[in-house]
Amino acid sequence: MTNALISVEQLASSMDDGSVVVVDCTFTMPGARPNAAELYAQRHIPGARFFDLDAIADHSSDLPHMLPPAPVFERAVGAMGISNATDVVIYDTPGMMSAGRGWWTFRAMGHDRVRVLDGGLKAWMAAGKAVTAEVPSAAPALFRASPRTRLVKSKAQMMENISTRAEQVIDARSGARFRAEVAELRAGLRSGHIPGSLNLPFDRLSDPETGRMKSTAELTQLFRAAGLEADKPVVTTCGSGVTAGALYFALYLIGRTDTALYDGSWTEWGVPGDTPVEPSVSP
């Protein structure tokens, strides 16, 4: 699987011969209706399994949808019929909001046979492809994870980076949230950003009409305009680690492999305490 993106037509052809497992990784904010599970129940690509980011997570943490321990991931994807030899295609409803997080999760667990459907369910339906409400059954498979810890950053590592500035940090939240012009979505969090970080809102990575990813040339220019240097490692972050996956995925598309994702993101960093914030604004 040399290309991390797959088109609607390519996926449709692959589904005809049964060579892939399709995974719906749609995510919605807490309290949203319909939520991700309800959207999946209403309609999804035929045969698609639902990957619940909140359920397939580290439940020992009080932070939402943190990267799951290897055994949790193994059981979940094994129940979906995914083995280490399975080709996986991930999508979300709008095109590129949470699919990147799902893609990164598989990669962080050592599975490289994973791609993202370009444009997601939006592009699939725009092409006149069928959708269904039928939940597929899957024969269980054996999956063995090989976690790649280098792809994940902790709060302690991010705190150390404040001093060393060894890695660039780029934030996928909106400019207004990044600049502390609006209150955070989750109650009790400070507004602002990690000192020294850059900002590239995730929704600028794809076409708003089609949901499809912008070209590699356009993505390269977006990162350059945001101030990202080409020869310095990068850590992506966001509100809770979901849309940081979109930045991570886009960086992969333009050939960057010196990247990691801050899993706790602003939900962890923005809590009043010992983490420095720019600009300094109280919740």
Short description:
29% of the residues lie in helices and 14% in strands. With 283 residues, it is of the alpha/beta class.
Structure characterization notes:
With 283 residues, the chain is of the alpha/beta class. The protein has ten helices and twelve strands. The termini are far apart. Helix content is 29%, strand content 14%. Helix 2 links the parallel strand 2 and strand 3. The protein has two domains: 143 residues, Rhodanese-like domain (Oxidized Rhodanese, domain 1, 3-Layer(aba) Sandwich), CATH 3.40.250; 132 residues, 3-Layer(aba) Sandwich (Oxidized Rhodanese, domain 1), CATH 3.40.250.10. The protein is globular and about 55 Å long.
Secondary structure elements and pairings:
Elements: E1 5-6, H1 8-16, E2 20-24, H2 36-42, E3 49-50, H3 70-79, E4 87-91, H4 99-108, E5 114-117, H5 120-126, E6 152-153, H6 155-164, E7 168-171, H7 175-178, E8 191-193, E9 198-199, H8 216-225, E10 234-237, H9 244-253, E11 259-262, H10 265-269, E12 278-281
Q: What labels would you give this structure?
A:
283 residues, alpha/beta, Oxidized Rhodanese, domain 1, 2 domains, 5-stranded parallel β-sheet, 14% strand, globular
Order of helices and strands: EHEHEHEHEHEHEHEEHEHEHE
Q: What is the class of the largest domain in the CATH system? A: Alpha Beta
User: In which order are the strands of the major sheet placed?
Assistant: 1-5-4-2-3
In DSSP terms, counting alpha (H) and pi (I) runs of 4 or more, how many helices?
10
* Number of E-state strands: 12
| SS content category | alpha/beta
Model regions low in confidence, pLDDT < 50 over at least 5 residues? none
Which fold does the CATH topology of the largest domain refer to?
A: Oxidized Rhodanese, domain 1
Number of domains: 2
Radius of gyration: 18 Å
Q: Alpha-carbon distance between the termini? A: 45 Å
Secondary-structure arrangement, i.e. CATH architecture of the largest domain = 3-Layer(aba) Sandwich
Global morphology: globular
Note the main sheet. Answer: 5 strands, parallel
Q: What share of the residues lie within helices?
A: 25-40%
What amount of the residues lies in strands?
Answer: 5-15%
Q: What number is the mean pLDDT?
A: 95
